[in-house]
Structure formats: C-alpha cells, structure tokens
Write a structure and sequence with these properties.
mainly alpha
Length: about 200
C-alpha cells in the first residue's frame, strides 16, 4: 500500500548520514562509493555508520527512501493551486528543462542505484515503492482535476503511468547519453499530449 509520503521520522543523526551519503555520491559516484568515503564526508568513523546500518546496501536503501521523502516534501502542495498548475509544477520538478551539475550527478547516481534492482530484490522493492508513490500522486492530481471539471473524464491510472513512463525515459536518457536537447523536446511533446488528451476544451 502506498501513501502520500513516508511515515518515517528522520532523526538528526540519520539526516546527517543521508546528507553525507549525498555528498559522497556527488564526489565519487556509485561505482566508487564506500562506507569509508561516506564516513569521511561525515567526519566520523566507519563504526559510527555501522551502528546505524548493517551494510552499504542497507544505508543506500535508506538513502533512496530519504531522497523520495525530500522530493515529496517539495512537490506536495496544500491544493491552493489548480490541478493543471499542480501537474505542471510536478512535471517541472521531475523533468526540468535543465539540470545543474550537482543535480545531474545525483540523478545519474540514482540511475546507477536503480540498475541494482535488476538482480537485487531489496532494491527492486524500494524502487517499486518509489515509483508507486510518484504514480499515485499523479493519479491524485488527475482525479482532482476531473472532480473539479478542469480535466476530461479520463482513466487517471493510464494517464499517470504514461506521464511517468515518459519522464522515466528522459531521466535514463539524460544519465546515459549526451542528447542535451531531448528533454526539452519531450517536455513539449508531453505538454501537447496533456493538452489534447487531458485538458477540457
């Protein structure tokens, strides 16, 4: 079962470890990441990390949860905006036209982490939860738009999955190719799709 956001309360120590993991990923990438390097970013010993986490895998699984919680805290609104504005903001958060260097490195590292889900069931389960939470939020925006008469009476699950699949494809493309103009072209195409299939005329 998915929810609007994680019910987990992050302690100050956990947040510091997650922020150090973030910095280490930006500095070394996934391939060169180690508990020692995360501990160095934290300015603590490896033992202090192993007090909280059994392994690097355990730490990274928590990091994925933390990143998702941070994303949700940025995109969830109190519904003061109309559904179309909320949807536009959501898409902009997940698929900006341009990425700064740090954000680009982090997203590339996230793609590397996702590749672990091919063989590792724990990572597969975590990424399944992440994707479900994002798609569920898309569905809620679309259903609100239908209820308020702003969107057509569409299959919200189908449209949400289409949007998410499109965004995911661009994320992988950005992380693995030099096709710098592709994200903007996809954003324009996605906007056209939503105007045609979702918005009431």
């Amino acid at each position: 079962m998915t929810t609007d956001s994680s019910e987990r309360e992050w302690s100050t120590s956990e947040e510091r470890i997650m922020e150090a993991t973030h910095r280490a990923l930006l500095r070394y990438g996934y391939a060169q990441l180690s508990i020692s390097r995360i501990a160095s970013e934290l300015d603590q010993s490896k033992a202090s990390l192993y007090y909280h986490y059994d392994s690097k895998e355990d730490l990274l699984l928590s990091f994925l949860e933390y990143v998702t919680d941070q994303l949700e805290s940025n995109i969830y609104t109190n519904n003061d905006e109309g559904p179309s504005q909320e949807l536009e903001q959501f898409i902009e958060t997940l698929l900006p036209f341009r990425l700064g260097d740090d954000e680009s490195q982090l997203r590339a590292a996230m793609v590397e982490l996702r590749s672990q889900a091919v063989m590792d069931e724990k990572f597969r389960k975590q990424f399944t939860e992440i994707d479900n939470r994002i798609v569920d939020h898309l569905e809620r925006i679309i259903n609100r738009g239908i209820d308020e008469g702003e969107f057509r009476n569409v299959d919200s699950t189908r449209v949400a999955e289409h949007i998410f699949a499109t965004i995911s494809g661009v994320m992988y493309n950005r992380a693995t190719t030099n096709r710098e103009n592709a994200p903007a072209a996809v954003r324009v195409a996605l906007s056209s799709y939503l105007n045609t299939d979702l918005m009431k005329r």
